[in-house]
Design goal:
This protein is an all-alpha fold. 51% of the residues lie in helices and 1% in strands. The chain is built from 14 helices and two strands; from the N terminus they run H-H-H-H-H-H-H-H-H-H-H-H-H-E-E-H. Strands 1-2 form a two-stranded antiparallel ribbon. The longest helix is centred in the middle third of the chain and has 18 residues.
């Protein structure tokens, strides 16, 4: 196993020591290190990915599934141990798509939430699908390649709910006219997983995505587009998993994921202007504040710390808040690898 030369972007820290430390972690960490930071053969990565089901965090989360296919007896609550949030975590761990327990979880998410407006609605009192939840559920269903035609309807529903400023907001039906960071990142992640899983590289999705990217970039990922002030201190935290909350590292990790995938795909843009805008976004100067913030949060040992997430029930803590975090170090390093590679 060798370090990818493109990964060696920071000579102030020992890359080999960091890699060794990361590889001493859970199979989910090792798999993503092999995939995103190292030049590993596909068969070696898949062998490591298999272990997510059999060992460590992945095995523990799967062990909590009820006999009826749910987690904690609920579809969206209690937070954070319900089916929705457990499936989101399993997706972020990289659990293989063919896992049968995950497939049953996908069926529960879709059967119990698919609504007449073609989105996801788990609320008995709400007469419209919830955009943020629809985005999260789409990302789960797409990651696990759930074979159901209704999945495509979810993507269409999200496109229909895009707001004038380019983003999305789960409160749009209540009159909100400014997009939400939280909802926008969930929708963008869902659309990316959808395109990657089903080969649906559609011009209408790319057009919507460009507008969503522009919304986040106009805010430099965490600032007011009018005053330049930080929108919320919560956006500067880096919890894992992020649940439905937005933060700057979640956004950076999404962008590196998208642009890495874009470079390997034949993207169909609606017009030449959109294609040129997408190329500009890859190296957009408006990423610089978030990149510098990420670098400044690095500790002298080259690692990043885990930050406390939102309160709620959890099955267990993958990492201790305040301590060195393999998750955040992995995510930060692959962001920096991408950023240095395009600049």
């Amino acid at each position: 196993m060798r370090i990818d030369k493109e990964f060696e972007v920071d000579h102030n820290h020992n890359s080999e020591d960091l890699i060794s430390w990361l590889l001493a972690g859970d199979p989910a960490i090792r798999f993503q290190v092999m995939r995103d930071l190292l030049s590993e053969a596909p068969e070696n990565m898949e062998e490591e990915r298999e272990k997510i089901t059999l060992l460590g965090w992945g095995k523990r989360y799967l062990s909590y599934q009820d006999s009826n296919g749910l987690w904690a007896g609920g579809i969206y609550g209690p937070k954070w141990i319900s089916t929705t949030y457990t499936m989101l975590t399993l997706k972020r761990l990289g659990l293989p798509s063919y896992n049968q327990q995950a497939q049953e979880g996908c069926r529960q998410l879709l059967d119990r939430g698919f609504f007449r407006d073609l989105g996801i609605n788990y609320s008995k009192s709400q007469q419209q699908s919830e955009v943020c939840i629809t985005g999260m559920v789409l990302s789960v269903l797409a990651h696990f390649k759930f074979p159901d035609p209704r999945v495509h309807k979810l993507a269409d529903h999200l496109l229909s709910r895009q707001m004038q400023d380019g983003g999305w907001n789960c409160q749009d039906h209540q009159g909100d006219r400014h997009s939400s960071f939280h909802t926008t990142i969930s929708v963008l992640e869902g659309l990316l997983e959808y395109q990657r899983a089903y080969g649906q590289i559609r011009p209408d999705i790319e057009s919507a995505r460009l507008k969503g990217h522009e919304f986040l970039l106009q805010h430099r990922l965490y600032k007011s587009d009018h005053t330049g002030a930080i929108v919320s201190e919560r956006m500067l935290r880096m919890p894992f998993p992020p649940r439905w909350f937005y933060d700057f590292l979640r956004a950076l990790d999404y962008f590196q994921d998208y642009f890495t995938w874009q470079a390997q795909s034949e993207i169909q843009f609606p017009d030449r202007q959109s294609e040129q805008l997408a190329a500009t976004h890859i190296r957009d100067e408006r990423f610089s504040d978030a990149i510098e913030l990420l670098k400044n949060k690095r500790k002298p040992d080259g690692r990043w710390r885990m930050m406390r997430g939102p309160s709620g029930k959890v099955y267990f803590d993958m990492e201790k808040a305040g301590g060195p975090s393999r998750w955040n170090t992995l995510r930060a390093l692959r962001v920096l690898k991408w950023w240095e590679g395009v600049n």
